[in-house]
Amino acid sequence: MGLMLKYVIAGLARYWLIHMDYWQIIANRVEIATPLNSWKRLIEGVYLYDNNINPYEGDSFHESPLMLIFFHFFMKKFPYILPLLFTIFDLITAHLLYKTSKSFATLFKNAQDKIKDEVNKDSKTMLLSKSGLDEAPDYVLSVYLFNPYSVLNCAGMTTTVIQNMLVAASLWGATSGQRILACAFIALATHQALYPVLLIVPIAILLADINKGCNKCSYIRTLLVFVLCWGFFIYISAFIMDGSYKYVYNTYGFILSVPDLKPNIGLFWYFFTEMFEHFRLLFVCAFQINVLALYIVPLTLRFRREPVLLATVLIALSAIFRSYPCVGDVGFYLALLPMWKHLFTFMQQKFIVACAFIITSALGPTVWHLWIYSGSANANFFFGVTLSFATAQIFLITDLLFAYIKREFTLKNGTSRQIDGKPAKLVLR
To answer: Which pTM value belongs to this model?
Structure first.
């Protein structure tokens, strides 16, 4: 299927879903819309702002002022093009991921050529050819364009569509060696959703690898550009709100403190519904440290030579453990996995994970209906499904990382598994 045909079919599917009679149901699904990205809440925020009421004084609007002013302009001037705008944004995201994977293929080929002499002669056949690397971008594009999670996320007109586009743009900027572009877009994504701040680490490593020179100097320059961009967006947002920084509590504060416990596909809502109030602060800190700080150092130390893999894993972990996740977050990182299709042969849990994804995706809406509409189930049923979904994602990420380590070991030591002339088994602990 030609590239242009893929874009056309995917765009028409998204545009049709937005205009169908069931759009309202899609836009209000708990798997798609959260208190952070909901189209309904965005409309309410714009309405309050248009009537000279501060949308951040209540508990209904939690997007950044930049998003508020952006959608205020389009809703007042060109409301009829909003469905088309979301469709175009999602297609741009797909194209940016396609360009990112093409840049990554070039970087991977160059890195592979450098270590070719160090590869064991038994493992020479495992080295990827140019044709094999050139296939990955097409798979990345197809997975994002036709993944039901991505399609429904766009059809629900959630602001996660824009967040995904910003993250994709930052990844493309980083793989292309464009420091200012990468830092500006990741700062804008961080300003919107906070958790993309994790990506500054793999982006800094990637830019240092591409732009040859002093690594420490490159890290400092990248961090400085990122901080300046983020600070600029915070200042502009305050300027939009008449110099007030009170919006920070209803954006970053809302993400970190998790006051809205409406069910979603994440883990926070159930734990804090059952939590005694005097333990709440302790567990909020523990959960946020888990997603924002716990994995970044060990993963960076182990996978610093593969910053794109590090970025993929960090995006996946933030999608699993963030306070208000949605299927759009999951669909985004799933589209990055075909870049690592050469690792799939080393993965052991592909079938189990695939079955878990299919079963939980079907059970989620079913159990939600039984709980909310039929009254024949309860919150434990729905949380059991979301917990299984999160577990499947964790299995997927750990399997991918172990597959990378296995391939790395095999390239260095060969395919033979013998100790003292006897067959041996490789066990990773």
So the answer is: 0.94
